[in-house]
Structure formats: C-alpha cells, structure tokens
Design a protein that fits this description.
Blueprint: E1 29-31, H1 59-62, H2 93-102, E2 116-118, H3 123-132, H4 145-153, H5 156-160, E3 167-174, E4 204-209, E5 217-219, H6 231-243, E6 248-254, H7 264-274, E7 279-283, H8 294-301, E8 303-308, H9 318-325, E9 328-331, H10 350-353, E10 355-356, H11 359-363, H12 369-374, H13 378-395, H14 404-409, H15 413-433
Parallel strand pairs: 1-2, 2-3, 3-4, 4-5, 6-7, 6-8, 8-9, 9-10
Helix pairs in contact: 6-13, 9-13
This protein binds 2-acetamido-2-deoxy-beta-D-glucopyranose (2 copies).
Subcellular location: Golgi apparatus membrane
Family: Belongs to the glycosyltransferase 47 family.
Main location: Golgi
Length: 450
C-alpha cells in the first residue's frame, strides 16, 4: 500500500573539501537507519477505513487521506497547473522532513562522525492506532516502546554515546497530545505517553506546539500549503501579497459556531456578527479548510489583520497562513506563538509584525477588537505588513528538490529547525563533556538574531 510516489533519494554524503574551511564542522547529521515498521510501513495509516473507528462520525478527519502521501507528504497540488500550492496534511510533516534531511549536505554515514542523530520515525502516524482503534485505546502508554527497544538493542553504542542527548525527531502534533502520564488509568482518549518514556527522555522532539516548560521539545511552524521550488515562485507570491488590496479590516478563519461559555472565540464571533462591514469569518468547522487553501488564502489576502485566538490548543496553523498572506496576525496570548517558535520568529520582533490584545481584556474588560484595530494608523499597518512578509520565508516549508538558487537565498522552516536543533544539541553535549549535566535542562534563550 506504500504510495509509489514515495521514493526516497539514495543517501547523499558530502566529502569534506580539500581546500577552504570545512562547511560541515558542527553540522554533521547521521540518519539512523530504522526498520520500515517505524516509518514507511506507517504510511498505510491513511484513508478513512484504515482503522475500525471508535467514533465513525469522525471518519472524515481522523486519518490523513491517502492522497496526502503524494509529493513526499506535501499532498497533491491544489490544481494541475498550480506550481507551489498543495493540499498539505500536517500529519505527513514527519515524512516530508525525512525527505528534506535526506537531501541535505553534511550527512554522516558513520554515527561516530555525527554531531546529531536524526530518527526518521513517523511518530504521529504510529500514534493513530492508539487513538483510533477501540481495541488499542488502553494500550496507548505503549506508543514508542518498540522504538526504544530497537534503539537499545541495535548498535546500542549510538544511543549510549551521549545518553540520547544528540538524538532528534519530528512529532507532527502538539506535545500535549504525547505527554499523558503512563500510569493514568483508565487511559485518557486521544493522547499517548511518548514524551514520558524514560528511554527517550533526553531526545529533542520537534513538535508543532510545545508545552509551557518545553525542556524535551521545541516547536516548529505548522506547515502551510505553500511549497515553492524556486526563488522566482517565492518572490512572485510575496509580491502578490504585498500588492494585494485589503478592504477588510479583520478576518477570522476557524470554527464558526458560538461556544457556550464566554471565551475569546465567542467574543470574536459576536463582534464579527455585529460588524460585517469590518470583519470576515471563514467557516472552517468540520475540517472544511484542512485540505483546501483557496478557501482561506484569498480572503486573507484581502484582509489587514488575521485573528488568532486559541482553540482546543493555543497554536494554530492559521497563524502561518496569515503570515504568508501578509495579513498581520493578532494574538490574544503569548502561548499562541511568541513562547513557541523562537527559532523561526524571534520573540523580540513580535511588536513589529503582530498585534497583541490580551484575551481577558476582550472577554471580561469590554475591549472591542474592531475598535483597537481601527485605531492603528494606516502607515503602521503597512509597516507591520512589510515586516510580516519579511518573516514569511522563514516559516515556509520549501519543496524538496528545489533550485540551488532558492536554497542559497533563504533559510526555510526546515533549515532553521535544523540550525536550532544542532545548536541545542551542541549546548547539551558540551554540558555533558564539561561534567555539568544540570546545565542540560536549563531553559534556553532561543531568540535568534536576524
Ligand atoms: C539522560 O541524561 C542524563 C544526564 O546526562 C543521564 O543521567 C540519564 O541516564 C539519561 N537517560 C537515558 C535514558 O539515557
Ligand atoms: C453588538 O451590537 C449590539 C447593539 O448595537 C450591542 O449592544 C452589543 O454590545 C454589540 N456586541 C459586540 C460584541 O460588539
């Protein structure tokens, strides 16, 4: 059942040049070879009939559609002539990231030469049986146990050399969903204990959302649907977003049904119902937007501000869609982005490219979002839009196999994630070498200078 489009490049290694400084110093990554049951076999977990569903009514949204496997996990193109737009399902990011690591320079065949070890384990796909198959719901503490057993058995030296501190992997989901205490009985539905396995405790997990004290994980951007393969395609899009006429003051894309208790989403929906002249709501309920970027990208291009309230969890993909559209994001709490994506969006720059309105002020303090945003001078809106479009390339996942020109011109979401993880691993291995293990778990200052 493995999609035939899903064929990996042979492993490329770059020999150190004989002249000039070695560009790979401190940047060598060994890709751990894993049995297919930890990655390619898991691509079977697609399509509505992959599992005997606990809740058949959720069938449409519970597993990624099999067509999402196309293009190494970017999904099918939005239409046949589209060059850069895909129907991307975030849960295939693990497979796509794997593909991008494979095409990277500075790979090390010998783990002894490597600064970091990448585990091409498709963790979120492997979690699906535990959260979807009624027969396995009680087993969810076992998610990842087979991997831990394999790593301790097969060439155990790779793992033990630095106690796992140099290992990293991608988990295409929120860290909260993988952090259930293994001893909870009965098991809570919808989450596993991957991050709580002692054997994996020292790994760095790249997740789409981190917890409040993320000492094991670091957040990387949710993938959007835009994956350019050349500098020309990237620039053409940014120019379009820059020039776009924006008649709408603010936009909200998300669940459009009013919540029963007062919260920020409810406040937004009632303001928008009152002020249809200033606010557009794109109804994304029931997964309507998940694989259909046209639905929200066009309205975002026509809006000045895009509202990013927390939903079930604090972060949302829509934040990254908005950045790409040059629609200035409006955040209602720091957990929505500022305390998450430091490698990609420097925390000290948020005032330049986003607006912050505390959610309590809106829900309980009588602050009207429309009025707050109407009060921002037009010149200031334009300045923020320029800044947000400067940030956009940093959160884009460019297509695999893109042109050397694009690769040299911009660091994309994968490049910055790899830079961040290498730096974090370097700090940890230095702490180990210096015999100061307490430094390993110190909260990092992850704001990058750009
Ligand atoms: C994790 O790191 C700590 C500190 O280096 C070490 O004592 C511990 O044994 C490591 N855990 C595993 C499972 O390797
Ligand atoms: C909506 O309009 C009504 C009537 O003008 C007003 O009483 C109410 O406070 C408004 N609600 C919001 C959220 O703006």
């Amino acid at each position: 059942m493995v999609n035939p489009l899903f064929i990996f490049l042979p492993l490329l290694s770059v020999a150190a040049g004989t002249d000039g400084p070695d560009p790979c110093v401190g940047r060598r990554i060994h890709i751990r070879s894993l049995p297919p049951r930890f990655n390619t076999d898991l691509l079977r977990h697609c399509g509505a009939d992959a599992f005997p569903l606990a809740d058949p009514s959720a069938a449409a949204t519970s597993t990624p559609p099999c067509e999402s496997l196309a293009n190494h996990g970017l999904g099918p193109r939005t239409h046949p002539r589209s060059r850069s737009w895909y129907r991307t399902d975030a849960r295939l990011l693990e497979a796509f990231f794997h593909r991008r690591i494979l095409e990277r320079d500075c790979l090390a065949d010998d783990p002894a030469d490597a600064d970091a070890v990448f585990l091409p384990y498709y963790a979120a796909l492997d979690a699906l049986p535990y959260v979807l198959d009624p027969g396995l719901l009680d087993e969810s503490a076992r998610h990842g146990v087979a991997l831990a057993e394999f790593l301790s058995r097969d060439q155990a030296r790779i793992l033990s050399r630095r106690h796992g501190h140099d290992h990293f992997l991608v988990v295409a989901g929120s860290a909260w969903d993988y952090a259930q205490s293994p001893s909870v009985e009965p098991r809570l539905w919808g989450s596993t204990s991957l991050l709580r396995l002692p054997e994996l405790a020292n790994f760095t997990f790249l997740t789409l959302e981190s917890r409040t004290w993320p000492w094991q994980e670091h957040a990387i951007p949710h993938p959007t649907s835009f994956h350019p393969s050349s500098l020309g395609h990237l620039r053409a899009w940014l120019a379009r977003a820059r020039r776009s006429r924006r008649a709408t003051l603010m936009l909200f894309a998300g669940g459009a049904s009013r919540p029963s208790r007062p919260n920020i989403r409810g406040s937004i929906l009632s303001e928008c119902a009152n002020r249809t002249d200033a606010c557009v709501v794109v109804d994304c309920s029931g997964g309507k937007c998940a694989h259909d970027p046209v639905r929200y990208m066009r309205p975002m291009l026509r809006s000045k501000f895009c509202l990013q309230p927390p939903g079930d969890t604090p972060t949302r993909r829509s934040t990254f869609d908005a950045i790409l559209a040059g629609c200035v994001p409006v955040f209602f709490e720091d957990l929505a982005a500022r305390r998450q994506y430091g490698w990609h969006l420097p925390p000290v720059r948020y005032d330049e490219f986003s607006v912050h309105i505390p959610k309590e002020a809106v829900v309980f303090g009588g602050v009207r979002i429309v009025e707050a945003l109407e009060a921002v001078p037009e010149e200031e809106v334009r300045r923020m839009r320029r800044r947000v479009l400067e940030m956009a390339p940093r959160v884009v996942y460019r297509r695999h196999g893109s042109t050397p020109e694009l690769r040299e011109a911009v660091k994309d979401a994968v490049d910055l994630a790899v830079d961040g993880v290498l730096q974090r691993i370097r700090r940890r291995t230095r702490a180990l070498e210096d015999g100061l293990p307490e430094r390993i778990y110190a909260q990092e200052e992850d704001s990058v200078d750009i």
